Amino acid sequence: MKEIRGWTTNDSKALYNVAGWSSDYFGINEVGHVEVTPNGADGARLDLHDLLQDLQRRGLGLPLLMRFSDILHSRVRTLFGCFDDAIREYGYQGRFRGVYPIKVNQQHQVVEELVRFGRPFGLGLEAGSKPELLAALALLDNPDALLVLNGYKDIEYVETALLSQKLGRYPILVIDRFREVDLVLQTARRLGIRPHIGVRAKLTTKGAGKWMESTGDRSKFGLSATEIVLLLDKLRDEG
After folding, report:
1. Which of 34, 68, 146, 231 is spaced 20 to 30 A from 9 at the CA atom?
2. β-strands 171-175, 26-28: how paired?
3. What is the pLDDT of residue 124?
4. Domain of 18, in residue numbers
5. In this structure, are residues 153 and 129 in contact, taking their beta carbons and an 8 Å threshold?
6. 209 in a domain, yes or no?
7. Do 101 and 75 share a structural domain?
8. What digits encode the pLDDT tens for the residues 127-183?
9. Residue 106 pLDDT > 60, yes or no?
């Protein structure tokens, strides 16, 4: 006869693959409750079941949305710490400049907290539209942080980006398509502002995974090797 045993917390961990997605921020404790460790595995632990009961006693009803901003802080520290360790190990002479793409999570609280937590590290923002650009300008006030700008560009977008330099920002206009070059240079010339320009390269090598069809020579975005050379010629002509 097959032995029947009781369900254990280890069974719950395996069923929900907690180790596969939690990155040590969530777990199941010895009494079978989900717990959160906002500062990582070595930080304080909070029983979510007990927390919910406490909130209900205070008159709050379900469902509830909980935000653990310390997780954002922990991820920023971890990211920059990994790059700092690698830079020291390999004697790299440059510096890691991290940016958070607003499109990942556009909620005001998330972006605001990341900017605040990332200030000591110089964490910047990436925007891909005019609304995201305006949001970034409102939140990012660290002159040491980069503001990386890509996506569709019209005159208003480029003007706003360039004029932000007078506010102490460091915008980098990323050229996604070759036709954007003239728009950026003409606008910069008219405003009398020297632009910071980045380039999205279209690599011949194709990637793998879900987005592999958008890579390689047939990629919709990015400049080919020939276009990059032409871009450099234009920049030299502009001085």
Report:
1. 68
2. unpaired
3. 97
4. 9-57
5. no
6. no
7. yes
8. 999 999 999 999 999 989 999 999 999 999 999 999 999 999 999 999 999 999 999
9. yes
Give me the pLDDT at residue 220, please. Answer: 74
Q: Are 173 and 153 in contact (CB under 8 A)?
A: yes
Q: Are residues 106 and 161 in the same domain?
A: yes
Residue 22 domain-assigned (yes or no): yes
pTM of the model: 0.84
Burial class (CB in 10 A: 0-12, 13-18, 19+), 131: exposed
Distance of CA 175 to the CA centre of its chain: 19
Can you say whether residue 192 is alpha, beta or left, with left for phi > 0 and alpha for psi between -120 and 50 degrees?
left
Q: Is the dihedral of CA 51, 53, 59, 64 positive or negative?
A: positive
- The stretch 68-86 carries a mean pLDDT of 95
Across 182-197, average pLDDT: 95
Residues 88, 47: one domain?
Answer: no
Q: Are residues 87 and 128 in the same domain?
A: yes
How many folded domains does the chain comprise?
A: 2
